[in-house]
Structures are given as C-alpha cells and as structure tokens.
C-alpha cells in the first residue's frame, strides 16, 4: 500500500514556482489569536456592514426572482447591475462591463488574457500585493517605477516606457493600497497622456475611490482617457469597501475587444459570479439615497479612525519615523529610519501582541525594507491607542532607545 | 481624438488564442427566446430549488454570524463545510479540502497548477466541454481515449499511458456530461490500478454523483485509490446539482501537496469563495435528513423526466438513431446515422423551434460529428413530447424521410 501523493510535486507546471503563500496570509492567521491588536489586515469596518438591509434584500429577491437568483446565469453578469455600473462611467455601455468575483478575479483574468511569460508589466513601487499574486502565475517581468507624494514619478515613468515595450501599467491612483497616496489631477492627466503617447494601456484599480474624507473625488484615469478619445484604460472597482467584501462582487470596465476576451476567460474560470450576490448588490446600490448615506457613514468613520491613528503615531513613534497623512482610504504608510528592517520589527511587534504588514512584499523589485502598512479601518480608539503604544515599544527596543511612556 | 481600443488585439497573450466563445454559450443565448423548447442547457430543475429553505437559512446566518458571513475570510473555505465534506470522503481531513466557486473553478485551478504548454492531458471521448474551456488557456495537448458503454476502453487507455507521459487523466465516471454513461465497478477498479501503475494522477469529476435513479451508488475512484494507498486521485464535486448552481459552491479534495498549491493559486485568483454562500450551503447540508429528502426528490423527478424522454425518443426518432439509456444524471446522448452532421441538424432544429447541443465540441479530437446531447432535467412532459416531435421532424427532413406523425 503506497501513498502516491509525493508524485505531485514533480508534476507542477513551471508557473507554479511563482504561486506561493503570501506574507499577508500568514500574518492574518497569526493575528486571529486572542489578545492581539492587529493593524495588518485590510479589513473594512464590519460594524458598518448593512446586515439588516442585506437580509431584507435577500428575502425580496428570493420571493420575487428566486429561480433566477439560484439558476446558472450568463457569464457577463446581471444586466441591471451592469447598466448601473455603465451609467457611472463616462462613455460606457453594459457591453463594456464584466462582473467579476472580487477585484482579485479581475486582476487574474486581465493577467490571463494579456500577460505572456516575460511580458513587461509596469507597477508602482510600492503596489498592491494581491495584484502581484494574480499576475505572477502568468510569469511577467515587473518594471517598478518609484513614486513621490503625487504618485508615479513622471520622468522615471517615461524612461521606462521608452526603454522597452510594456504590456500594460497597473496603477492605483486613489488612496493606493498600501501607501494611501492620492494621485493629484495634474499627475493623472500627465500619466494618461504619456500612456497614450507610448500606446501602453493603463489598468486602473479604483477599489478605494469612494473613501475620500473631504473635498470632491478627482476624475478617474478612465474618464480622462475617455476625454482624449478613450480605449486605453481598463477600470476595476468593487463593492468590497462600500458594502461587504464577503459578497465578492466587483467589475471590470474596458474596451470591448478586451472585455469580450475577459468574458470568455471568465467562462472557463468559474462560469459566472453567483447570481444571488449580484442581484443583492444591485438591490442595495439602486437605492441611491441609501447607498450615498452608507458611503458617507464609512467615510466619516474612517476619517475619525485615521485621525486617532495620526494622534497615536505622533505620540508613540520615534521622531525619525515618517508617514503619509491619508486623505481617504484605509491605510497609513510608514517609512522607518533606513536600516530598520520591518520584517524584524514585525517579530518584535508580535512579541508585544500587535501586528502590521511589512512593506517589502509590496515592492516588485524587493526594495522597501524599512516600510510598513498600518490599517485603521477596523480599529477602535482604544485599540489604536494601545496597539500603537505597543508598536512604539517594539520600535524603540529595536532602535535601542527608551520608548515614550 | 483617437480611440485606442484596437490597440488591445495585438497585445493579447499567446494563450488567448485558445480562449474562445463556446458553442454552448451561443446556443444558450439563442434558446432563451420565447417559443423555443430547448434541451440544450444542462440546467438543474429550478422547480426543485429549495428557495424557502435558502431564505430561512440566510436570515439565520445573518442574524447569528452576520459579520463573519460578510467579511473577508480564509482562502481554504468555511471550516464547518470543509469538515462536512471531509467526513464523506474516505481518509480525508479538512486539510485535503479546498472550497471553490463552482466545479469550473476547480478545473481552472487544477489546470493552472499542473498544465504546462504542451502537457499531455488525457480525456474521455467525449468529455465535459467546460473542462476543455478551463484547461485550454494553459495550452495542453489532449489525448482522447475512446469509450464503450462502461467508460474508457482499457486497452486504448493503457496504450496511451504507455506511449508518452500524461500529466493527468480527466474522468467523469458517474453519469458523465455529456454521455450520461455510468462507469461500472470493475472498470473503475481497473482504471484506478492502471493509473497507479503508470503513476498518472486521475482528476475525478463527480458533479452528478448523487443523481442515480435506482440501486446503490458505486464507490468513487478516490475511494478505490484510497483503498490501494491513496494519493493518486483528485476529487471534484459540487452543490450545483443538488441545491442550486447560482450559489457557486463546490470543492476539490486531494493530496495535501496539491491542495496547498491550489489554495495559493485560488488566493491569487479570487481570494475566497463568497463566505455567505459557503455558510448557506453548510446550513442546508448539515441537516442530513432534509438534504437526503431534497436529493431523493431530484432523483425521482429526473427519473420521471428521463422516462418521458425515452418514450418520446422511441416514438419520434428514426430507427437508425442510437442512444444510451441513462441510469442517472441529466442527459441523453444520441448517435445519429454516420454522415448526419449534428451542427447542421441543430440549424434545422432551430427552424422547428427546438434545440440541443451538438456533440462534436465535447470531443477534444474533433470527432463525434454525428452525436448530440439532450437534457431532460428541466423539461415538462408536454415540452418533451412537443420538443422531441419537432426534433424528429428536423431529423427526418435532413434524412429526406417522412417524419412520424
């Protein structure tokens, strides 16, 4: 009686070398233990989930359209939801919209359809770690472009586009995960123009778009490209940050030749996003007044929590720790004094029963060793106070200095 | 103002050549028009969806575990559901179980993790079309092995395994889609032994396992392999045929080294299957008595509908039309006189306002031109009578014979 399971290892496809556990995943496991105050997970505030509303909407859907909600449906997605999405994107029709099972699936399908082994994909430094996980199995080469406070540095971007052809550039202009940065209007315009000049499509990931604290939202790269003739931006957004991530409903908006291929790819990947979930999302967002209030509530809550974290950072961090003050979104991005390794710091922080995400995995080029991401979206005032005090102790211990009492 | 969307076509990855619209898809569109009686879609009977029960379970989950149901969760899937699945598979623990968003996603992730361009994947002739759509983007070569009434022909199978290494073989032993065939016990044993002898893993797709009409279910290939030491079968099943396909909850059970890679691949592909849907499925299946009754109801309904279709086939088909009488599942598989092209027949059938799926797309080697699949799972007695009469007219017209009145 021989167990043959060891037989699998040598059978893995070459791409499987690049399919690995992520740091975030291991950390999420760790910090689910009691007693920890974790700022690691990018979890939306569960206390704001519209649970009751979701219950009512589900009952209505099952009563009125139960068979449709539970049967197989088309790969493109629920038409009323696609219409609602198209109505919010300049120049889009439902035929430009593909519903996906979370933005993550959008990233996977776009990678599948566009990336050959060795294709150059341009990313921000840092960039969203989940996008790297989605693209990696398709074996791209990454071109990492540095950022300043306004987003991608233009000179470095143009140099990269000029050097060798790039398949597409992946950009998170609004409250970027992980850095929280907001790309300014002039920078947006310049990047859209550069992309058009070098005939390089932009993949715009706008998961955090609704989460601005003050002021008005800036136009999307998709809208700016549309004003110049369009066809060069793929737009990705989601309900994970405004309704509930557990529903897994997001969308890709893009030029039709691409959307068609994404639809065929999705058909092979999972047939369609659960019908009930799509109908549920539509039931919630179609009531614009309610949806507006829901988003306002999230904005105000995150702004308050962000403010608490800013105060705690000022109180407990050493003077040579730097950070970007977010204008929206869910994250603080910290830059420690050069030489401090944030993975080592995490080990110390865990001893103090707190946690964050080390920054290095967000850099496709392996830089950013002294950076870290803290999420405030799910934390109470007390947790932020206590947790940052713990983190402060860990940092001061590492630097061999006396912590702030 | 230039629209750049034409820019995408030359940017598609090489694999995208193999990401195409499927015949099934186009046919499903067609037959959604009123007036048609379609036997094309493999749609479970919507009149048996447990809508009320799903409503109650959703309310209970939202009331008692609302936050968990709507928050991000682990990639592996909802633990109680994985425990329930493991308890039904010999030798399995929850660590052998990965929840996926429909069997289709299981096929995609297994392809992603195992198939290199040019890898040989052995399939039945015919095989499930959706598996070909899932595997195609990973650019395998298919090795098609013919079947007799009992399943894969053993001599041909051994010759294929001997000739050149095969990455894995994909088998649907129970009420295969499309042919409805049930692989007998001796054939099952022989195939499991051959696979072990040639160190070739089996991917067992068991989507229709519960849908037997009479008698007792046969042991799965997974169970037979387990009895010989295990580690050589990957098992795939789903709730799409017993509860509701729109929920998109299925599972892969397999050796841990493979399941771990599938988990990492799924993390990059869609993070996790919607939590609410997984919890909902668990709420339904955990009540074994109710779940047993639900499946019995489906079995009896399909057996009745199958019987109606058999009677109508005997009445309206020409004498030289052959078919397999199903012992379970959802499909009749017809073999027309050689020379009759079932795609041409479909065009005639559509003129008569009925539809089926031509068999050829189910053959990886392009054979099977004179075969066709009819689904009885969703049809009423009247629809079966009228539809088969229409199909009979179309066939007799094509053959230049007088139809049965």
UniProtKB/TrEMBL annotation, chains A, B:
Pfam families: Aminotran_1_2. Residues 48-391 form the Aminotransferase class I/classII large domain. One of its GO terms (biological process) is alpha-amino acid metabolic process. GO terms for molecular function: pyridoxal phosphate binding; transaminase activity. Transmembrane segments: none annotated. Its cofactor is pyridoxal 5'-phosphate. Keywords: Aminotransferase, Pyridoxal phosphate, Transferase. Homodimer. Belongs to the class-I pyridoxal-phosphate-dependent aminotransferase family. This is GntR family transcriptional regulator. It comes from Meiothermus ruber (strain ATCC 35948 / DSM 1279 / VKM B-1258 / 21) (Thermus ruber).
């Amino acid at each position: 009686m021989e167990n043959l399971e060891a037989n699998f290892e040598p059978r893995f496809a070459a791409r499987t070398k690049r399919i690995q556990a992520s740091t975030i995943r291991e950390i999420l496991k760790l910090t689910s233990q009691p007693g920890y105050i974790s700022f690691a997970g990018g979890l939306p505030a569960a206390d704001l989930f519209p649970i009751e509303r979701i219950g009512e909407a589900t009952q209505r859907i099952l009563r009125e359209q139960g068979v449709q909600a539970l049967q197989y449906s088309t790969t493109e997605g629920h038409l009323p939801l696609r219409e609602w999405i198209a109505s919010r994107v300049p120049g889009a029709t439902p035929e430009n919209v593909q519903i996906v099972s979370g933005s993550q699936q959008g990233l996977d399908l776009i990678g599948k359809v566009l990336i050959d082994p060795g294709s150059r994909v341009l990313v921000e430094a840092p960039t969203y770690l989940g996008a790297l996980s989605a693209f990696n199995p398709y074996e791209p080469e990454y071109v990492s472009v540095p950022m300043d406070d306004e987003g991608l540095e233009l000179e470095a971007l143009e140099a990269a586009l000029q050097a060798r052809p790039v398949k597409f550039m992946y950009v998170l202009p609004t409250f970027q995960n992980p850095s929280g940065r907001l790309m300014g209007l002039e920078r947006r315009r310049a990047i859209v123009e550069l992309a058009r000049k070098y005939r390089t499509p932009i993949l715009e990931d706008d998961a955090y778009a609704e989460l601005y604290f003050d002021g008005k939202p800036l136009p999307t790269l998709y809208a700016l490209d549309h004003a110049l003739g369009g066809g060069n931006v793929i737009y990705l957004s989601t309900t994970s940050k405004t309704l509930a991530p557990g529903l897994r409903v997001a969308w890709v908006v893009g030029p039709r030749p691409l959307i068609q291929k994404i639809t065929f790819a999705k058909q092979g990947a999972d047939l369609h996003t659960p019908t009930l979930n799509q109908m549920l999302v539509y039931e919630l967002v179609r009531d614009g007044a309610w949806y507006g209030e829901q988003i306002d509530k999230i904005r105000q809550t995150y702004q308050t929590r962000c403010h608490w974290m800013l105060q705690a950072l000022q109180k407990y961090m050493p003077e040579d720790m730097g950070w970007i003050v977010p204008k929206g979104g869910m994250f603080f991005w910290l830059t420690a004094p050069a030489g401090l390794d944030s993975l080592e710091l995490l080990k110390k922080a865990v001893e103090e029963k707190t946690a964050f995400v080390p920054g290095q995995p967000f850099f496709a080029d392996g830089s950013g060793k002294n950076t870290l991401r803290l999420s405030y979206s799910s934390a109470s005032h007390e947790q932020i106070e206590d947790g940052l005090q713990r983190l402060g102790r860990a940092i001061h211990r590492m630097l061999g200095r006396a912590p702030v009492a």
